[in-house]
Design brief:
The structure is a single chain. With about 300 residues, the protein is an alpha/beta fold. The protein has a single domain, classed as pyruvate-formate lyase- activating enzyme, CATH 3.80.30. The protein is built from eight helices and 13 strands. A seven-stranded parallel sheet has the order 3-6-7-8-9-10-13. A two-stranded antiparallel sheet has the order 1-2. α4 packs parallel to α6. The longest helix has 15 residues.
């Protein structure tokens, strides 16, 4: 199956991947519980992440969050999004702790799920975070579209929205991608250029093949859409559909150490395809561990 892309080419659509509702043992998976929203860290980030929603049902191929939660939280039904519960006193206390420890001046929403399943809760948390003197970075692929009014509210709280895009994933199969770009243009106008970021997961395509060259051109074209652009080289296994299709340049991939561990990961990471260093403020790269990142998800210089 193929679908026209915004630049006029026809590119392969990758089929969604979903976890079985039952595990190999025959046990049924269970959704996340709705617990209080708390600041935490993981093996890549600093102590500045939270989730207003846990879980996501988009079914992106090779989803790192889905697969890692399947290992770390055995039996979780990741594909049932569950809004979490806001306890303002607890969250303010967590933010105070970041301040006391001279931590980052921003918090990220969207690690174990996509916040877009409850935009009103996103707004409520963004308001609180803003009032406490922090920036709120919202990571989303917008499986549920926000209204213009909801984006206008978020712009008042200076939230930084990262719209996640991956060639062949949500873009190819998503009938709403044009509306998502339109919403991001509206948000850019209201909040400011630096607050609306296209976060694109990139591959090292083999440009000696016809399809690989088309995919590579399409991927780079998104850096010229008039948004601040953040590249995240996409970590994949050799079972990834693109690997099986023979459209990747494996000379550009390396098997790096797993986050927070001394052993090699089962996944491979490509060299950046668009990001060329820190001299261009319009093209950022998610290419380091978080504590040494020079752009801090686009919050540096705000």
């Amino acid at each position: 199956m193929r679908k026209n892309y915004p630049m006029g080419r026809k590119l392969t659509v990758l089929q969604p991947e979903h976890l079985a509702k039952t595990m190999k043992s025959g046990e049924m998976r269970s959704p996340y519980e709705s617990k209080y929203i708390r600041i935490r860290e993981n093996n890549k980030t600093e102590w500045n992440i939270l989730d207003t929603v846990k879980g996501c049902n988009m079914g992106c191929p090779n989803c790192y969050a889905r697969s890692s939660m399947d290992v770390l939280m055995r039996g979780i039904d990741f594909e049932v999004p569950v809004p979490q519960t806001l306890n303002k006193k607890l969250l303010v206390g967590d933010l105070d702790k970041i301040r006391r420890q001279d931590g980052p001046n921003w918090v990220r929403n969207g690690v174990q799920g996509d916040p877009a399943y409850d935009w009103d809760l996103v707004i409520e948390v963004a308001k609180l975070v803003h009032e406490q003197g922090f920036y709120n970075v919202i990571m989303t692929k917008m499986p549920v579209l926000p209204t213009a009014g909801q984006l206008l509210q978020l712009s008042a709280y200076k939230a930084v929205i990262h719209l996640g895009l991956v060639i062949g994933y949500n873009l190819s199969s998503d009938p709403d991608w044009q509306r998502k770009v339109q919403l991001m243009r509206m948000y850019q106008k209201w909040a400011g250029y630096d607050y609306a970021i296209l976060r694109v997961g990139t591959f090292a395509f083999d440009t000696t093949t016809t399809e690989g060259a088309e995919l590579a051109a399409e991927q780079k074209a998104w850096a010229d859409m008039g948004f601040k652009f953040m590249e995240g080289p996409w970590r994949i296994s050799k079972n990834h559909p693109y690997a099986k299709a023979g459209v990747l340049d494996w000379n550009q991939y390396k098997n790096k150490k797993a986050y927070g561990k001394k052993v090699k990961s089962k996944n491979f990471s490509p060299r950046p395809q668009v990001f060329k260093g820190t001299k261009n403020p319009d093209v950022l790269g998610c290419v380091t561990e978080c504590h040494v990142c020079p752009n801090q998800c686009g919050t540096v210089g705000l």
